[in-house]
Every structure is written in C-alpha cells, then in structure tokens.
Write a structure and sequence with these properties.
The complex is a heterodimer of chains A (255) and B (422). Chain A is an alpha+beta fold and 255 residues long. Chain A folds into two domains: 116 residues, SCP2 sterol-binding domain (Nonspecific Lipid-transfer Protein, Chain A, 2-Layer Sandwich); 129 residues, 2-Layer Sandwich (Nonspecific Lipid-transfer Protein, Chain A), CATH 3.30.1050.10. Chain A has eleven helices and nine strands. In chain A, the strands form two sheets. Chain A has a five-stranded mixed β-sheet with strand order 7-6-5-8-9. A four-stranded mixed β-sheet of chain A has the order 3-2-1-4. Chain B contains twelve helices and 13 strands. In chain B, the strands form three sheets. Chain B has a seven-stranded mixed β-sheet with strand order 4-10-9-8-7-5-6, sandwiched between helices. A four-stranded mixed β-sheet of chain B has the order 1-2-3-13. A two-stranded antiparallel ribbon of chain B has the order 11-12. In chain B, helix 2 runs antiparallel to helix 9, helix 5 packs parallel to helix 6 and helix 11 crosses helix 12. The two termini of chain B are 20 Å apart. The relative contact order of chain B is 0.16. The chains are: A alpha+beta (255), B alpha/beta (422). The interface between A and B is medium-sized, with 30 and 36 residues.
Chain lengths: 255, 422
C-alpha cells in the first residue's frame, strides 16, 4: 500500500494502457473508426522526456501503436511525465514540434477520438445499462488493465517487488466467453499481449462481463469473488497472488 | 469414479457460505477460506464443518474427511483427545479467565522449559503471530537494534512488520527494516550481515523451508551451524519460528532437531491440541528484555489452555510422537507415490514426513495437481492444494490405507480426463 503514485509509472500506464487502447477502440466502436476512416494516413508521436515514447499510426479507420517516435508525421514533445499525464487528464494542451500542417487532425479527429475512449473507459451508470455498451466497455477495460498490470509491474517500485516474486511463464486474464489477455512474465518483467495465450501456467477468469466490471470498478473483491466462484483461479497461484497485488496498485493509478 | 468413493455434495456448505459472505468479509477470510486455502475449483470443497473426532471432520452436509490439514496444525493428538479435553474440563470447573492468573501457568512454563532444549523461560500468548511478534520485540529490546533478516518465501504471521510491502494495508515504513536472503545461501547471509553491521537485531526463520508453491527443502549440510556462528559473531539473535513444525519433528524443538540452539523459539499449533495458546521461549539472558515489553492480551493467561497444554505435551512424550509422526507420514507418502506411479504420475513428497508436502510434477502449471487434490477432497481425503500437511497421533493404518485407495481412485479419474498424457 502506498498513497503516492509514481508519475513516471503513471506516464507509462497512460501511454500504453490508455492511449494504446485506441487500437482496440477503433476495432470495436464504429463511431471511433468513422472518425478517422476518411483521413489521410497519419502518425502522431508522443515523446516524453525521461518517460515513454510511442507513435500512433492511423490508416483506413484503424489504429496501431509502436514504441518510439522516430518517424512520425506529428510530434508532440512533453518536457516531463507530469506534462504528459496532464494531456491525459485534460489539463495540458500539447504543442507539436513537428507537423503543424496536421493540426486539423489533432483538433478535429484525435481529440474527439480520445473523448470516445473516455466515454467507454469512464463509463456512466446510464451508459452501462446498455448491454452492448457494457460489453464493449468491459472488453476495452480488459485490455487497459492487462497493459496497466505490465506497466505497473515494470515501473512502479512496489509493483516491481510483486513482479520479483513471479516466476517465468504466461498468465491468462479474462472473461469466460469474452476477451482474454496474456501476461507473459520473463525475468520478473511483464509483457501484455491483447489476445489469449495458447499455453499458460496460471489463469484468472471472471464468470461474466458483470463480474469483471464489478471487480474493475472496485465493487467486488477478488478474494470474495474466488469464494463465490465468480472469479476462477487455476494453476500457479503464486503468480496470481502477485498479479492481484499489482492489480490493486493498478486500481490506484486508474482511479 | 468408483462406486466405493462417490463424489461428495456440498450443497449445505454453499448455502451457509451465501449467508456468510453477506456478513463476514470474504465469507471465510484467511487460510481457512477459499482464496488463501486455494480451493480449486471452489465447488469441490467443504466450507464449514459440523463436528470432528480423531483424524476426521464432518462437514455440514454430513461428509466425512480424513483430515491431513489438522486445522492447519493444532490437531496434533486427534480431535477431542480424551486426556487433553478431560484436563481442560477439570480446569474449567476451577477457573479460566481470572484477575490473578491460575498457578497452572507456572506449571505449564516449567514443563515447557524442561521440554524445550533452548528454553530457560516461557512467555504465553494466543496465536502464532503473537509469539513471533513477541520474539521480535524481545530481540529488538535486548539488542537495541532495528533490522531483521528473513529468508525469502517466509511466513511469520500477520503483524505489519512481518508482512510484505505489497500487501494490502502495509506501508513501506512498516517493512523498512527488513532484509531478505535466499534460503541456504550462507554467503548471501554473510554479505547482508556485513553490509548492515551493528544494525541487525535478529534472524527470524523456520527450521526448514516449507514454502507453499515449491518442494519443501531441508537445510544443506552445515547450514544452521554456519548461520549460528555468523549470528553469534555479529551479536544477532536467532528466532526460530517453530509455530508450524514445533513438536512434530522433535519435542525439544526443531533447532535441537537440526543441531543448533536458538536464542528465541516460538510455538503455537502443537502446544495444546486445539486449545488456544501460543508461547515464545528464550535464553536466560533475554528474560529481562522479554519482561520489559508492553505486551499482553485479555486472554493470554487463561488457565484452560495451560491445563490442555500440560496434558498434550505429556501425552506427546508418552507416545514418542515425533517418531510416530515420521513413521505414519512415511507410510502414507510412500503409498501415495506408489499409487501415483501406477497411473504415470510423478508425485513428489518433500519436507519431513510429519509435515509432508505434495506436488505432481508432470506439468509446470500445477493444474494436474490441483485436479487430483480436488478429486481426493471430494471423495473424503482432505489435502491442501499448496501447503504442507500435518500428521496427527490418532491417524491409523486403516486411515492411511483408505486414503491411498481414495488417492488411487482420484489418480484414475485425472488420468481418464487427460488422454493427452498418453
């Protein structure tokens, strides 16, 4: 337990778990894909001093993220992790260092796209009453949380302590009949793949979208969920124990 | 599934659990609950017991289990042992929780001092955590030092100072004085001692590595004498956490079993056959430090558990319990391994036979192991998925034979469910 979050870890989480989920948003939400479908192919680089660096590529209504921003059309530099985190929480307006002619894409396409992402990741009670919205929002949350676990495990000091106790191998995290991700552990670092693993040493599966949602929203405790059978754990429980501890940190960062 | 051992139903258990979860955090929290107890899958396990006798307990659905967890250790002579319970009932007539403690506390301390090789005095409390925390406080009070060494994979109770930085409710400050060394790593231990010269109050350790997710490991030859020597040279006290293994390896203490002497030693589980008490014992030169502690509790000097403890220790001595546990544990584990091999399973049994740890080594995920354990539990042999087990003195050869039969049946089922194993 630690009250203070580490701003650098938050920047990595914001970059890969939050902005990285634009990839999935464009796949799952027609409204998002439509926003960028007719635009010319374009890439936006985010370059954070002493922090993460990644580029979002948009083409034909699809989006993908790559690490680094050496070859981007628009480059958004941030002088610190705090400034970049400000972009995500809406308190900082970035100024491009490259690609001023594409400012229209940033304002008319990218900003509305992140608004759609926010609608799904910080969903209102009203929106969640729609089963289709609930399903999409929860699928996106599985990806966000999977990537966030990896970022907290690799960057946060307490997260690293937990990761130091996880042996090598893959962990499946997901929802029965729904999406799953692979958390691949090697030398106590975690990489998240946004698809289920072919083989895994441990698995934590939620019985339904509603259970996953309740857990993500802090309305259900994982230990209670195991007792009621709503959360199913199998395999190397020591891997899951430590991932649960990291998950506890993730909820602090995503709150 | 054989007709002889049909699968149990746990309907009533689950109904009560549904009530429990509404009024008790996690329904059943801690090591007796589904999450920490690793009930995999949860539907196959009983949640609540109705009664217990000898080596068995019956769940609320009326299913009988041959119990190899022994309430996680306290059942050392058999549930409701007549001699221990008679002593407890006799004391109940005289008094239990009283303003002046019963003199039987002194009798109990004298017996412990006579029994435990390294003990010159005994300090009584209730749970294992009270004993380990009390021993740590004593070590810090005596040495005026703050740091502690732990062997990785440790468990020494639930006080914040012995938990880990990533545990809920624990702050970095709670564990700021904790140093970690790998088990059996004498050089690593020496390095940590030298890097923290004059700051380390104590090493707290179990007598051997009975971690929960890997084969249990005895110390390599010369390990404990080497650690004893380093600690003595650097003014570091050794606290042996004998809460789990105490009296099951050696009635004189597990340090005695492994050929060294602890400065402080903690007991709980096997002290009083389920009557609630714990104790930490120590060397004469630490008695003043223990006396200086602000450390007490409402029920710590209750007399009934002392009466039970005296009866329990005397009976353990009479039975030569450590030998009995070793022999029964060996008979069981050899039988289980043989049953496993018949179906092509590689069952590893590690640790002391009295506290045997089981692991099927055919896959690296432990899923086959978890399936087999669930099949055993659901037929009436209560094992834990990933924890050492406990032998109690009331276990019979017939119980062991029946357990092996259940295990065979369970192995056949797992084998049948996994044609890919060939």
């Amino acid at each position: 337990m630690q009250n203070l979050m580490d701003t650098k870890t938050l920047a990595y989480l914001n970059m890969y778990a939050v902005l990285g989920t634009l990839e999935n948003l464009c796949e799952l939400v027609p409204e998002a894909a439509d926003l960028v479908r007719d635009a010319k192919p374009i890439s936006i680089g985010f370059d954070v001093k002493n922090g993460p660096s990644a580029t979002l590529f948009f083409k034909n209504g699809r989006c993908r993220m790559e690490q680094g921003c050496g070859a981007c059309d628009v480059k958004l530099p941030f002088s610190s992790c705090e400034k970049f985190n400000g972009l995500i929480d809406g308190t900082v307006t970035p100024i491009p260092s490259k690609g001023f002619t594409h400012i229209g894409f940033l304002l008319k396409k990218f900003t509305p796209l992140t608004d759609v992402l926010g609608k799904y990741l910080r969903a209102s009670e009203e929106d969640l009453k729609d089963p289709e919205f609930l399903a999409t929002s929860t699928k996106l949350m599985v990806n966000v949380i999977g990537v966030a676990i990896a970022q907290v495990a690799n960057n946060d000091e307490i997260g690293k302590f937990s990761a130091d106790h996880i042996p090598d191998g893959s962990v499946r995290l997901g929802i029965h009949g729904g999406p799953s991700v692979e958390l691949a552990v090697k030398n106590h670092r975690i990489l998240c793949y946004k698809r289920p693993p072919e083989k895994f040493r441990a698995s934590m599966m939620f019985e339904s979208l509603e259970t996953a949602r309740a857990l993500f929203d802090g309305k259900l405790n994982a230990l209670e969920g195991v007792g009621t059978g709503k959360v199913e754990m199998t395999g190397m429980c020591n891997m899951l124990d430590n991932i649960n501890r990291i998950l506890d940190r993730v909820s602090l960062y995503l709150a | 599934m054989s007709k002889k051992y049909p699968l149990y139903k746990t309907t009533k258990s689950n109904e009560i659990y549904d009530r429990a979860v509404k009024v008790i955090p996690a329904g059943v929290y801690g090591h007796l609950g589904a999450a920490e107890g690793q009930f995999i899958p949860v539907q196959r396990w009983p949640r609540f017991s109705e009664r217990a006798q000898g080596s068995y307990f019956w769940d609320v659905d009326g299913n009988r289990y041959i119990d190899y967890m022994c309430a996680y250790g306290p059942n050392v002579l058999g549930y409701n042992d007549p001699d221990v319970d008679a002593a407890a009932m006799e004391q109940m007539k005289k008094g239990n929780c009283t303003t002046s403690p019963g003199s039987i506390m002194v009798d109990c301390a004298e017996l412990l001092v006579d029994t435990v090789a390294s003990a010159d005095w005994a300090f009584f409390c209730k749970n294992g955590n009270d004993a380990t925390s009390g021993a740590i406080l004593t070590a810090r009070a005596a040495t005026h030092r703050k740091k502690l060494i732990f062997f990785n994979g440790f468990y020494h109770g639930v006080a914040p100072m012995v938990q880990k930085i990533d545990y809920p409710g624990v702050t970095p400050e709670d564990v700021a004085n904790n140093l970690y060394v790998n088990w059996d790593d004498i050089e690593g231990f020496k390095r940590v001692v030298e890097e923290n010269e004059g700051e380390i109050a104590a090493l707290i350790a179990q007598p051997y590595d009975h971690g929960n997710f890997y084969d249990n490991k005895f110390p390599k030859e010369g390990f404990w004498p080497a650690i004893r020597k380093i600690c003595t040279e650097h003014g570091i006290l050794i606290i042996v956490d004998d809460v789990r293994a105490g009296f099951r390896l050696d009635l004189a203490g597990s340090d005695h079993y492994f050929g060294f002497e602890a400065d402080l030693i903690c007991f709980c589980k096997a002290l009083a056959n389920g009557w609630n008490m714990s104790a930490f014992c120590g060397k004469e030169e630490l008695k003043a430090a223990a006396a200086s502690l602000s450390y007490t509790g409402s029920y710590w000097m209750s007399s009934i558990p002392f009466a039970a403890c005296i009866a329990c220790i005397n009976k353990l001595k009479k039975l030569d319990a450590p030998k009995l546990f070793h022999d029964l544990g060996t008979e069981l584990t050899e039988g289980l391994k043989k049953a496993a091999a018949t179906d092509g399973f590689d069952l590893r049994t590690t640790g002391a036979p009295a506290l045997f740890y089981l692991r099927i080594a055919n896959d690296d995920s432990m899923m086959l192991h978890q399936e087999w354990i669930a099949e055993c539990v659901n037929r009436g042999a209560f094992f834990a998925s990933h924890h050492n087990h406990f032998i109690n003195a009331s276990l019979t050869h017939e119980d062991i034979a029946q357990t092996i039969e259940i295990a065979e049946d369970a192995f056949h089922t797992v084998r049948k469910n996994h044609p890919e194993l060939g």
